[in-house]
Specification:
Elements (H helix, E strand, L loop, with lengths): L1 H4 L3 H15 L3 H24 L6 H26 L7 H44 L5 H19 L5 E2 L8 H7 L1 E2 L2 E2 H19 L1 H11 L1 H6 L4 H27 L1 E2 L7 H11 L11 H20 L4 H24 L5 H9 L5 H4 L1
Antiparallel strand pairs: 1-4, 2-3
Length: about 350
């Protein structure tokens, strides 16, 4: 009798088995972190068939150098999108910061240029944060407006002509930020690696990073737990601004000129890279590994298009398609995020009868 009244063993082991399954990386999590990295590897393996000169060392250096400013801003944007917002003004910020940086270099050399770049980027980020937290303007509207404001200010500062670096400055420390190689690796890419290392530690190993993800996952629950919406918004938009300031240093020391039209459409490239890399537009989830791989993927695609002589109009079409694919992947991830949802969707498609219907 005592044996019959004992709790069945399967009932005890069921929670443990569910916990074990929860601890294992699901296919969705693996795709979010490593999916774009796998696609990047396949693309690199296929590039010699399309562009035989792509794998030359000098061309690889060029791709890494070109990817730096996009990647640095994408690292900051990962925090913004993971918090449930995004910054459409980064293209205008990059133009304005680049102009101010060259003005600073003309006035006080490398030290003033670096300080001007970081300070201007931070100021732009704080302007966005002030509009969003102080005036309660939605992030989409606020940053769309400041996109035009920042570019307009850059146009005003360059109404007498674009700001440029004199050619006699080719050997200056400032120019070496964009042109120097460290053990064969472009210095801008090294800076990008340092930024991603610091960003990963901030997102995954600090309370601030956990608060950002918590707020993006459920703002109401986060506020109930004492997480300040104002502090989160100020932090993430200031972080985006600082990332633009750092990125501008790697950009302007490579192109040597800046005005209000610099990098038109840059914000779309950044958002496409972040979303394609696995960060959800709904917030609460962000992967810097995926963003890093997506940045390299976009840079490789761009280099291949340019090397094959594809007109800029068609390059924009490809960028638009990449953005659509990124948003589609994000939608599919959201739709099939729940366990068993993909299996249930398939059962609906094949109209498999349920046991109740069969009975």
């Amino acid at each position: 009798m005592s044996t019959d009244t004992q709790t069945p063993k399967p009932a005890r082991s069921a929670p443990a088995s569910r916990a074990d399954r929860a601890g294992r990386p699901t296919l969705g999590k693996l795709w979010d972190t490593w999916g774009i990295t796998a696609i990047l590897a396949l693309l690199l393996a296929a590039t010699p068939l399309v562009a035989p000169d792509f794998l030359e060392f000098s061309n690889l250096q060029s791709v890494l150098r070109e990817s730096a400013y996009l990647g640095i801003v994408a690292a900051g944007m990962t925090f913004a999108i993971a918090s449930g917002a995004f910054d459409l003004s980064v293209g205008g910020q990059l133009a304005l910061v680049s102009v101010v940086t060259l003005i600073g270099y003309s006035a006080g050399g490398t030290a003033l240029a670096v300080a001007a770049a970081v300070a201007t980027g931070l100021a732009c980020g704080l302007v966005n944060a002030g509009l969003i937290t102080g005036l309660r303007v939605p992030p989409f509207v606020a940053t769309l407006g400041t996109l035009f404001v920042f570019r307009g200010v850059a146009y005003i500062l360059t109404q007498d002509g674009p700001k440029t670096l004199p050619y006699d400055q080719i050997g200056s420390p400032f120019v070496k930020i964009g042109g120097l190689n460290v053990a064969g690796i472009p210095l801008p890419f090294v800076i990008m690696l340092v930024v991603y290392g610091a960003a990963w530690l901030l997102l995954r190993r600090t309370a601030t990073g956990r608060r950002i993800l918590s707020y993006g996952s459920s703002p109401a629950a986060a506020r109930f737990c004492g997480i300040s919406e104002t502090r989160i918004r100020i932090f993430v938009f200031a972080l985006v601004g600082v990332s633009v300031g750092i990125a501008a240093l790697t950009y302007i020391t490579r192109v040597w000129t800046a005005d209000g039209s610099a990098q038109d459409g840059f914000e779309l490239k950044v958002i496409a890279a972040v979303v394609l890399g696995g960060t959800s537009l709904k917030g609460g989830k962000g992967t810097l590994i995926g963003t890093f791989s997506a940045v390299l993927l976009v840079s490789v695609l761009n280099d291949m298009l340019v090397s094959q002589g594809v007109p800029s109009a068609y390059q924009r079409i490809v960028l638009g398609c990449v953005l659509i694919v990124a948003l589609t992947i994000d939608g599919l991830r959201t739709r099939f995020a729940a366990p068993g949802s993909f299996r249930r969707a398939l059962s609906v498609l094949v109209q498999r009868p349920s046991p109740v219907d069969g009975a």
